[in-house]
Amino acid sequence: MATGDSSDSSFIQPENSASLPKINLLTMFRLGLFQMGLGMMSVLIFGVFNRILIKELGVPATLASIILAITLFVAPARVWFGQMSDTKKLWGYHRTGYVLIGAASLAITAFIALQVMWQVGNSLKLVGWTGQTYAWTALLAFIFGIYGLAVSASSTPFTTLLVDVSDEDNRSKLVGIDWSMLITGTIIGAIIIGTLLKKLTINAPIEEIQTQLNQVFLIATPLVFGLALASTWGVEKKYSRYASRSRLVNQEEKITLGRAWRILTASRQTQLFFTFLMALTLGLFMQDPVLEPYGGEVFNMEIGATATLNAYFGTGTLLGLSTSGFVIMPRLGKRNATKLGCTLVAVSLLGIILSGFTHNPTMLKMALLFFGLFSGIATTGAITLMLDLTAAETAGTFIGAWGLSQALARGVATVSGGAFLDIGKQIFTNNVVLAYGLVFLLQGMAMILAIWLLTRVDVQEFRTNAKDAIATVMETELD
Predict the structure, then answer these.
(1) What are the pLDDT digits (tens) for 76-90?
(2) What contacts 24+ positions apart, CB below 8 Å, involve 89-96?
(3) Which of these, 68, 120, 286, 330, has the minimum number of CB atoms within 10 Å of its CB?
(4) Helix (H, G, I), strand (E, B), or coil: what is residue 298?
């Protein structure tokens, strides 16, 4: 939708939407509370589980990465949840009910997953890799799948809500605030976890780790749901422009997933951007399953200290989001700003590799700060392009598709990171830095691919094709 350098306002900005109140700055920050909660959960799931599974419990990195990636491989459900929120109201609203049910589900499921993880560790310690241990591991993977569905059910309608409540002249500001608060949640979560787990030493008994982490999750999971409730309550009712924008809103029974998919796939640009998002996500997140183990094995950092690595990455990303939105993008434009960010991300990954040879945690933290800074620039550009490539009539479906691309790529990145770490350890048996360096090097190559794909994305071509596709679907229904 409209955050582009040029726009077709008649396509996305009907006249009667002007009578609705404009979203104010306070409400923008309120909406950001939901993203803050997701940021905190991201640290808990991807910043703690991977470290415990790989280093403390001794689960192979490839298997641990696959378990975590299940949360992302259920991403095709995002398209369905997005289409459902377009067409089926829940408690009288298109978005809010889905967000709250999803938020409650992910909070509950996260705590259950933690308890099952302890059972995996107990079984592995007592009987090794037997049928019992594999059964617990399969159950953990299944629960992570439920967690992923809960995230899809909440985050896709929420992102679509951002499209519904904003206009062309304030959407970039809302996006900047909202994603900044996502990163703020990551930073806050990392600091809280690091503080609460500060007493744990590098070789702390697993019983002590279990007690501490249970306490952290008992505090964090209800807080995440509370933030979702405070974020969305009443916002859709007051500010949503969905009914005035969508020509299909009064024909809800006719907007099937199949017809929405026809609109989604009408443009070659949709496929290009889908692939670009996948490459970009690989370039940003392949280090996710190995970063905390990297800090533990190479830099000899404790559990709490490795959790705070996310704070350095998050701080850098927050600076990147702010710098990009207010300084870089107004001067360079979305495409050039995104390209600059992607290029600098690839360069910064070399800094993460080189820091490993120093074995100095400060060097790693500085490298992550710059990696986050450049990631923020790339992310801001990609998000604004994403909203440009979204049609109002099927906004939920489009947002679901972009979420699908990112989630699948993040799932592949998670599995690839763990798998390439295991491969690297087989190749470089006497040099753990090079083993981890292989992951970061391949991550940089994915980012270079994203740059090439970006040069082929054309927003105006998408808008023309999407308009034609929507008109065709409506004409078909009238016939």
Answers:
(1) 777 778 777 777 777
(2) 93/236, 93/237, 93/240, 94/157, 94/164, 94/236, 94/240, 94/242, 94/396, 95/157, 95/158, 95/160, 95/161, 95/164, 95/232, 95/236, 95/240, 96/157, 96/161, 96/232, 96/233, 96/235, 96/236
(3) 330
(4) coil
* Position with higher pLDDT, 252 vs 163: 163
Nearest to 82 by CA among 165, 155, 156, 1: 156
The 10 Å CB-count burial string (b at 16+, else e) for 375-385 is bbbbbbbbbbb
Q: What's the CA gap between 141 and 117, in Å, rounded?
A: 10
Domains and CATH numbers, the chain: 22-245+252-478 (1.20.1250.20)
Instruction: Return d(Cα 437, Cα 397) in angstroms, integer.
Output: 38
The predicted structure's pLDDT at residue 371: 94
> What's the CA angle centered on 147, arms 142 and 152, to 5 degrees?
125
Q: Output the six-digit token pair for 36.
A: 């803050």
Q: Of the candidates 124, 117, 119, which has an alpha carbon nearest to the alpha carbon of residue 141?
A: 117
Query: Please, are residues 52 and 366 in contact by the beta-carbon 8 Å criterion?
Result: no
Residue 127 pLDDT > 50 = yes
Q: Which residues pair with 93 in a beta bridge?
A: 90
Q: DSSP letter at 22? A: P
